[in-house]
């Protein structure tokens, strides 16, 4: 392993998910320090201890996408550090669509978790990236955001909104030396998908993390992971609406 | 959504199970799963037979509970979630001067699995078994959480070491690592021309790590020939890792047929010069030689295979030779066969090791192999030896109980820890292990 990224710090939002854990491990393997942010502090502390035992500088901080008061301390903590500050966003929530149908007030939470919360955080972080003239933002969206489907269109619409936000943020940060990678994972073998019927071509969190890291290094703009989801979604997006509206996929 | 119906097998792929699996990723969810439904925990399913199977029931897949949750760099004491693998621990700590004190033949084994089988390694003759380096375990039973150490809840601790998961879900463990000078191995290989030479080299070895590969196809004067590997940990330059390979599909039946195995073994034996040789190897290459070939169990085809492993007391070396004659005569075995001298170290009632010689041989799953293994089982009983539960797929309950004199004490402990019998597995039911013999 080559420790080439020692002046890099990654803030990982939603760090309790297995995809985020795999990504934290991947950047840590390269020598970056990590700030693990999320709601379950007990679990985050375990992950921070794990990474520390592996020789990485890691710490756990509180982040709740629905509580903007938790944002500033993380930004302050990151700015105390020299070097390049990066952020990776793995937050999001997907209650079953039928629960949302009976309780529409759940929609607010989904949008906060998957879109407006992380967008607000990144908007607070953007001046620091501009100031330092470097830094990468990884935003994990979803193939569900590429087209609204009957099964999860509230979650999909929140992720679509976040993807559009990231596109704009990329436009902004690029001119200051920063970069934004939009990641659209297909089915990933996580606690969220465990036991759900109809999963196919399921990728491991480690595979997705490796793909994201490669995209960061190559400064890719939008990636699908695994790659073939680009073509699956190309087909799904090109189905005419008058046919799509009658389908249930 | 927590439970997922899954078909899975033991490593030998003979026994199958369909079970509902939960796979928690956080301590909180593990606790909730066990509180809601106590059931056996499984790791990477590297046990060959049915030790990890619970057909028609439920099991908890621990592989995502794999973090280091405490490490003291001064003492080498590490606390882990039990789904972490031995290979991961070796990879993380060897460059920093620490190594698991005992490592089994695959780095994919989880710490939970190593405890549940009280595994041994190539240094058993001086380091003892895995459980002898465990400082504490945290067990979950329903909503109960118990910490057991060699002094606190000592009887429960002893029943847990080698206790095939019957005392509770092993959630966490604290291990004493051993200091290591670097992350390479100095390995010396020597030919042993026949059985007597093989045993003499094993008996005479002063090395920290020592194991014999045995050519089970050799007969007559060459019976028992093989290669003795002795190794010491050392500091030095790390040789480059060879890329790992995958077995993409089940091999056809003839892949490991007798003429091919004979030819392979002959070449493998002759690869080491008559005068022997020394070389520097990576730690993983020495300890986990087969891990480089992912899914190597597919080489045996879709019918799978059995691994027979027994140990006999030192003075029964003649009985072991007779077993090898039977194996060589049957012409069924594969290239994977190991002979090793064990020390007396064992940590639990149902731990496999005893001072003596252990032989491990793979056989493709055929009717003739089943008959052969039954004969070997009888001969092992007669020799006062025992079979290894991590490998077993075929033994009978009375035979196993006869081999493990502490079985009765173990039954008392596990039935106290798990009075509802929620942790029983296919192996426990097959061998009727939860009832005193």
UniProtKB/TrEMBL annotation, chain A:
InterPro entries: NAD(P)-bd_dom_sf, SDR_fam. Transmembrane segments: none annotated. It comes from the Bacteria. Pfam families: adh_short. Residues 1-24 form the signal peptide. The keyword Nucleotidyltransferase does not apply. Keywords: Oxidoreductase, Signal. PANTHER family: DEHYDROGENASE/REDUCTASE SDR FAMILY MEMBER 7B, DEHYDROGENASE_REDUCTASE SDR FAMILY MEMBER 7B. Belongs to the short-chain dehydrogenases/reductases (SDR) family. This is Short-chain dehydrogenase. It comes from Aliiroseovarius zhejiangensis.
Automatic annotation (TrEMBL), chain B:
The keyword Secreted does not apply. It comes from the Bacteria. Keywords: FAD, Flavoprotein. The keyword Aminoacyl-tRNA synthetase does not apply. SUPFAM superfamilies: FAD-binding/transporter-associated domain-like. Residues 14-180 form the FAD-binding PCMH-type domain. This is Oxidoreductase. It comes from Aliiroseovarius zhejiangensis.
């Amino acid at each position: 392993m080559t420790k080439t990224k020692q002046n890099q710090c990654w803030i990982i939002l939603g760090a309790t998910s297995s995809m985020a854990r795999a990504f934290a491990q991947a950047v840590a393997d390269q020598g970056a320090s990590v700030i693990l942010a999320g709601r379950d502090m007990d679990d985050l502390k375990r992950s921070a201890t794990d990474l520390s035992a592996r020789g990485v500088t890691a710490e756990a901080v509180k982040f709740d996408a629905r509580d903007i008061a938790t944002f500033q301390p993380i930004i302050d903590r990151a700015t105390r550090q020299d070097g390049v500050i990066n952020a990776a966003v793995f937050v999001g929530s997907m209650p079953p669509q039928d629960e949302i149908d009976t309780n529409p007030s759940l929609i607010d939470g989904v949008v906060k978790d998957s879109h407006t919360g992380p967008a607000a955080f990144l908007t607070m972080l953007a001046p620091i990236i501009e100031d330092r003239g470097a830094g990468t933002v990884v935003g994990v969206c979803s193939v569900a955001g590429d087209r609204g489907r009957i099964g999860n269109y509230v979650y999909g619409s929140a992720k679509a909104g976040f993807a559009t936000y990231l596109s704009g943020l990329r436009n902004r940060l690029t001119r200051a030396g920063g970069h934004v990678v939009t990641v659209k994972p297909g089915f990933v073998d996580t606690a969220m998908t465990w036991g759900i019927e109809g999963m196919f071509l399921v990728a491991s969190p480690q595979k997705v993390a490796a793909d994201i890291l490669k995209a960061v290094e190559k400064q890719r703009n939008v990636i699908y992971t695994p790659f073939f989801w680009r073509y699956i979604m190309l087909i799904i997006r090109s189905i005419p609406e008058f046919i799509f509206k009658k389908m249930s996929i | 959504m927590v439970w997922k119906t899954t078909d899975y097998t033991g490593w030998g792929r003979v026994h199958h199970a369909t079970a509902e699996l939960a796979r928690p990723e956080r301590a909180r969810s593990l606790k909730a799963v066990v509180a809601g439904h106590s059931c056996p925990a499984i790791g990477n399913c590297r046990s060959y037979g049915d030790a990890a199977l619970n057909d028609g029931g439920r099991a908890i897949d621990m592989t995502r509970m794999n973090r280091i949750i405490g490490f003291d760099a001064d003492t080498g004491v590490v606390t882990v979630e039990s789904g972490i693998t031995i290979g991961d621990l070796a990879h993380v700590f060897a460059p920093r001067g620490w190594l698991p004190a005992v490592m089994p033949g695959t780095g994919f084994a989880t710490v939970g699995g190593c405890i549940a089988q009280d595994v041994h390694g190539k240094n058993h003759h001086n380091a003892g078994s895995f459980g002898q380096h465990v400082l504490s375990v945290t067990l979950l039973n329903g909503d109960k959480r118990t910490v057991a150490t060699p002094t606190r809840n000592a009887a429960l601790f002893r029943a847990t070491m080698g206790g095939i998961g019957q005392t509770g879900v092993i959630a966490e463990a604290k291990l004493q690592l051993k200091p290591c000078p670097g992350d390479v191995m100095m390995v010396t290989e020597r030919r042993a021309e026949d059985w007597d030479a093989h045993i003499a080299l094993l008996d005479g070895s002063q090395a920290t790590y020592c194991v014999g590969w045995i050519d089970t196809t050799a007969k007559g004067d060459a019976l028992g020939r093989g290669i003795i590997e002795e190794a010491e940990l050392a500091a030095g330059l790390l040789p480059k890792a060879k890329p790992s390979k995958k077995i993409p599909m089940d091999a056809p039946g003839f892949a490991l047929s007798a003429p091919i195995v004979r030819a392979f073994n002959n070449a493998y034996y002759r690869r080491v010069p008559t005068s022997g040789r020394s070389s520097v190897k990576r730690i993983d290459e020495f300890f986990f030689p087969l891990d480089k070939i992912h899914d190597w169990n597919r080489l045996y085809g879709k019918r799978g295979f059995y691994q027979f492993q027994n140990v006999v007391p030192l003075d029964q070396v003649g009985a072991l030779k007779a077993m090898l004659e039977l194996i060589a005569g049957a012409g069924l075995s594969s290239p994977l066969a190991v002979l090793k001298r064990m020390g007396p170290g064992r940590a639990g009632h149902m731990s496999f090791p005893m001072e003596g010689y252990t032989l491990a041989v793979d056989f493709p799953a055929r009717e003739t192999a089943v008959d052969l293994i039954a004969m070997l089982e009888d001969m092992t009983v007669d020799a006062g030896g025992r079979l290894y539960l991590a490998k077993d797929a075929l033994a009978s309950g009375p035979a196993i109980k006869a081999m493990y004199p502490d079985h009765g004490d173990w039954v008392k402990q596990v039935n106290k820890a798990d009075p509802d019998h929620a942790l029983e597995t296919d192996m426990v039911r097959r061998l009727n292990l939860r009832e005193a013999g």
